Prior knowledge:
Elements: E1 2-3, E2 18-21, H1 31-47, E3 50-55, H2 65-78, E4 87-88, H3 93-105, E5 109-112, H4 116-128, H5 152-160, E6 166-169, H6 171-178, E7 183-187, E8 195-199, E9 209-211, H7 219-229, E10 234-238, H8 245-255, E11 261-265, H9 285-290, H10 295-301
Parallel strand pairs: 2-3, 3-4, 10-11
Antiparallel strand pairs: 1-8, 5-6, 6-9, 7-8
Amino acid sequence: METLEADSGAHPAPGRFICRFAPSPNGPLHLGHAFSALVNHDAARRCGGTYLVRMEDVDATRCRPEFADAILDDLAFIGAPPDAPPRRQSAHMADYAAALARLEAMGLVYPAFESRAEIARAVAARAAAGTAPARDPDGVALTPFAREGLSDAERARRRAAGEPHVLRLHMAAAIAAAGGPLAWREAQGLPEGPAAHVPADPEAWGDVILARRDVPTSYHLSVVVDDAAQDITHVIRGEDLFQATAVHVLLQRLLGLPQPVYHHHRLIRDETGAKLSKSNGSAGLAALRAAGVTPAELRRRLGLQPMPTT
Ligand code: GLU
């Protein structure tokens, strides 16, 4: 990464600072979430900015209102309650549909009819034959079913006939439509500090899914729509989402949305060095609270400075 001189994106006005913690209410919070919420909260407090919370609850099969309530309760406990009522993505499905429609109108979206199981079988068969498909930056195999395998007319016919499908971004066309190099600004310090210029490589993600039948949007699509709708100037989140930013800046460019500054923070890991998950009982905030751990002790364990007083 090199220090940024200039780039083409629209950026927040200097001095404005609005960040967000965006949990998915599909389980209880753990130490890693607490860290992310506190890093956001503290950065906003240090510069007189605004700290928002967004419930990423588009997946109705996994997200539950009681988890959202428990998350807000945990955030209050750790001293990081949001500055405004949280935005719930499930209340904004029409916004995601509108963004999807714009991308479709640009000819950048196509229906794909292979089920998850079919894709998994095809990936396994190719791996066995020594021609395993490439993997995305998260290590997930890209679909072996190429867009070219079916004509546009045939896709349209099957879609009109009501066949189950997902909607994918035609990545090559999307990159071409973006019309030039993509990059983002990665803040090296919070709330202020120099930013690095990170070239974005969305191609590595393949034809990402933008909408499914059961969930008619996706993480990638809703996150960029919401960051713009909430006027987010600084996206502060775990480094496990660093590579996904390439997809986000591509979608921002295509949809004409402003580009926030990003900061990807270190992850909190368990004793074995593994990433925490929702099922990590011992690192769960509920268990720590039950064990009498205080918010100040929690901050110490997370390597955070005492709570900013401003
Ligand atoms: N909802 C995502 C998660 O819980 C975070 C999204 C983001 O911060 O961009 O991992």
